[in-house]
Amino acid sequence: MFRISSVVALVCCQLGAVVLQPANAQSSLPRGTYEQTCVNSYVSGNVLYSLCKNRSGYYNQQTQIVNFRECRGDIYNIDGFVTCTKGTAEEPRGSYRETCRDIVIRNNFMYATCKTKSGRWISTSLQNFAGWRGDIVNIDGTLALR
Asked: Which domain does 132 fall in, by range?
């Protein structure tokens, strides 16, 4: 009798260890360069949460990417905000990527949240950028071709 109960207890403990593992274990995190400068990252449902360093080296408040599985390419940190590009095409090159986040490309429109000179984040968009060979820039929170 003792032997059977010991085996049952051992099996239950082993199963319990598997079942009780947190759903946000490191192995469930998506890969990306954000891992180099963000901590306390976890996934809950379709949302990736992370605490990231800003350019001054301090951690901002926790930020998130809703529907992170829609990200195309890298998940990265922009001045303390975890972000990625979503949409139907790859994001175009340009200096705007240093100060814009939450980039979505749909058809020939690019939508983003860009930082102003005063440090606020505002929504902006750019049309007809496909095939542009010059720089795409953030001018005080507004996307522009240069």
From this structure: 88-146
